[in-house]
Every structure is written in structure tokens, then in C-alpha cells.
Write a structure and sequence with these properties.
3 helices; 15-stranded antiparallel β-sheet; mainly beta; single chain; about 55% strand
Amino acid sequence: MTKKLFKTYLVMLLAGLSIFGTSLLVSAQSEAANNTASKAGEVISYNLYYKWKLIWMKGGNAQMSTRSASWHGTPAYRMDLSCRTNSTADVVFKMRDTITSIIATNLIPLYYRKGSFEDGTYTLDQAWFTYSNKKCHIKQRRVRKGQVTNTAFNSNRNIYDMLSIIAYARSFNMSTFKVGQKIYLPVATGKRVESQTLTYGGISKVEADNDLKYRCHVFTLWQKRDNKMKEVVTFYVTDDANKLPIRLDMYLKIGVAKVLLRSFKGVANPVTSQVK
């Protein structure tokens, strides 16, 4: 595998994992939410894989955690996501990425930071969220190779970063979704705010990397390529009160890549989605 192709795999894997769970955010539902799916102390670990010819190879690992925090004296949650390549993958493309999101206890975004070290280049993304006059105001800042880019956006709807949207999305009652339903996502990506579209695919049994199977809700992200709508990512989240992200499949021009749950602890509710 060439260095360029391997880099594409790993960057897409991290991007996919960062939006793991965004598949649950419904258009027009942008108010504060009641958090029942997660709690401080939750830790979820993943293995990252890529397919080279007929062989699945492990490319690294990732971990997502939630803990209690405060923001300017206000009680909050801190979510952290780290992703790193293993020693084998480092030879081709070295990745050490960390993402932090501070969210209010009602799951409203307050601050976002992503430090990305990929193949010798460090990029820092930050976002600050404020609220006034029934609008969400976001300021973004990117530092890369000595250059600083500042952008600002306002919206009548809440804008989410790639990590806070996971917590917010997990608060929804997925029993209301219908197969084929379209879902729209307003997400800050570092220099801009993008709208993404997903569809709900029903329920499926999925095996994780802990040798257990789970009943999961399935969502697929679509993007327009060559004037056609094509699958980009398929997400699987548990059909229970935790809505744990179990697996994601990335459909790339160069093949398929996967993120699989390895372990979890400190979850807020019983894991009733486990099946034989």
C-alpha cells in the first residue's frame, strides 16, 4: 500500500469516528436536551482497521471518554477522543490526534479543540460557542504551518462540533425514526459549517471486537460524487438507552475501512441490546 493511500484510510477513519453518532440528529431539533444516554466516567475504546487486497489489517486504536468539568464556573461535561496509529502503521503514516469538546449539562456546545499531528504536520482547530438573541454564534480558529485562519458564523439553529454532536444525538428517542428517513446535520469542521445528510436503515445485529453481538440502529451518510449520491459511512449504535457507537464502515474509492468497539465501561444504563 502506498503512503498516500494509507494516509487517506487513516484520515477518513478519524473523521468517521469523530462523527460517530451524528447520525441521530434530526433537522429542526436544535434546542437543549436531557442527557440520559451517557454520564461522567464513560470510556469507550475502539480498534481501527483497513483492508489491503483480501486482508484486514489493524491500523491503530481510539478512545472516547466523558468526565465532569466546568466552563467559566458553569457545570459541564468534557468529552475527549484520541486516535493513534500503531507501530506498524507509523512506518507508513504516523497519526496522533486528540479532540476535546466542552458541553453544558443540557448538551449545548461551549468549546471545541482538535490537535492533529499527521505525518509530521501539526494542525490546531478551535471553536468557541456563545448564545444570544435566540442565535448560536461560533468563532473558529485554525493554525497550520504557521498560518492562522479565523472564521465566524451565526445560526438560528445550534451548531455542533464533531464531538459534541455525539452526546446530543444520543439523547434522542430512536424509536421515532422510520426506515429511509433523511436526517440533516449542521457541523463545524474547522474553517466552515457544513450540512450533512444521512438516512435511517433500521435495526441490524452487529459483532464488535469484544466477540459480542449487539442489536443496533443503522444510519448511512451520503455524499454527491460524479452527480450521484454514494455511500460514505455506515454507523451502528446500540438499540438501548446508552446508544453506544459500536461500529462504522467507511466506503472509499480505494476500499473499505472499519472502526470496531473493543471495550466500554462506566455506561449510564444497562446494555440490553446484547444478543447471542
